[in-house]
Every structure is written in C-alpha cells, then in structure tokens.
Amino acid sequence: MTSYESYNAKTTSISYPWPPEVTGIERIALSAQGDLQRILCAFFARPIVIALVYSHTLRQSTPQSPPEPLTFPNPQAVASASPTSPITQTRQVHLQCGGTIACTATSIVRISSPEVAHLFLEEKYAIGQMFRRLEKVPAFELLSVGLGPVEKNQGSGSSLFSSSEKTSWSGLETKNQLWRKYKLFIPDFECEILEVFPSREMFMDGESWLAGKTEQASSSSSGEDYDVNFTIRLSRTRQSFILITLVACILVVAFEGILLYSGRAVNCHRA
Fold this sequence. Notes:
This protein is α+β, with helices and mostly antiparallel strands. It has helices spanning 24-30, 36-44, 75-79, 114-122, 127-134, 201-204, 206-261; strands at 4-7, 12-15, 49-59, 68-69, 87-97, 100-111, 139-147, 178-186, 189-197. It contains 7 helices and 9 strands.
C-alpha cells in the first residue's frame, strides 16, 4: 500500500486505505512527513526529546565491495561519502515526552554526500531535524499502517523489517499499539522507518496517559524504595540483636571473673 497525496492551486487531498478503527488525530500522526516530533510536541504541549537506543553504521567503499563497520570519529569516511560509496546506518530511537516513551522509531538511513554525513553522523542531527537543517521537504511514501503486533514483512522488502530483526517492543503487550512503515527521500539522504506508538490511549487523552505513566513509574519507585528501606531496617535490627548478645556475654564473663578474683566459687551451692 502506498500513500497518495495530490494538490492543485486550491485543493490538497490524501488518499490512503486507513484501517477503519483509526481516528482523525491518529491519521495526523501517521501522515507526518519527517515532522512527527513537532506534531507530538504540539499535541502534548511539551518538549519531545530524541533518545538514541542503538546505532550500527556501515560503509561501502565501492559498489562491488561488502559493507564494512564504521567507528567514529572518522572524518575520512565522512568526507568520502558519495553515491558510489554510501554510508548506511541502522538505528533505533525513543521519542520521549516527560520521560515517557511516546514512540519507538527504527530506521535504515542511507547517506551519499559529505555534507549530509557530517550533519547526521558528526553533529548528531536527528532525522526530522535533518530536513529542517537542510531546508528541504522530503518525498514521502507510506508503506503500511497497522494496529496491534507489527507485521514485519508487510509493505517493505528491507531487512529492517525482517522477522530476524530484534526490536525493543518484542515480548511486550502489543494489542493496543499503533504502527506505520514509511520512506522519506531527499537528495543524498534516504530513510526507511518503522514507528511504533505504544498505546492508542495516548491519542485519546494525552495528559491522562502521561499522568498514568508517571504514576506507574512513581508507584514502582516507591515500592522499590520500601523494599530497600525494609531491608535496611531488618539489617539494623539484626545488627542490634548481635551487639546486645555480645555485650551480655562480655558482662557475664566479667561477672564470673570478679567472683573468681574475690575467691568465691563460681556457681557454688551451700550445704
């Protein structure tokens, strides 16, 4: 499936076979074209921060050679990025609002110019910020949209979405999540992205959803603090008991010694 956006002098139209359950506000987020961070920021009325989970960078020195891992800093590799010697990075980030993960984005990025490589790999611009920094509007292709578990082989032939890819949401409750796969293109910078929104509840009442997440984190933290404090109190009680027992033993020994020193038999019995 592909998104179709058309416009003329007075009309703009987006035609896509959305799942019938998807709401209007969800369609806005799913239609974001490199500006999801800005849309979520406006929705929550709070800053959205990009937190890197992992990144793996490869460089292909010639069209015929296999990709080789890159480590940074590496100014020579950055300066040599070109269509025949591209740099590819697989990465995953969290879009966080107030410490809560609002979206997990896993991407494959292909870079083919030194300028783009410098901004992305050395200055650490995120994908959305790259388009704003370069002042270019990306071409956008929506590959697929879904509810619940991610259909990893739908809408893309990339290895990013293969069943062997390890993703951070595997093993978690996925019934209520929302996801999309899409591509963004500008010259020398191509991105294929899988985004997963952890719960559709965030689009129903963002403040309540954030507050609920914060309360859960606070409750978990309070429980952990209680366990730690209880352990500390129990340890102190044991230490006090051992100390009292030791002092009592010392007093008994001292008392026995005094009796012996004074010439009185210890534990003597009168006839």
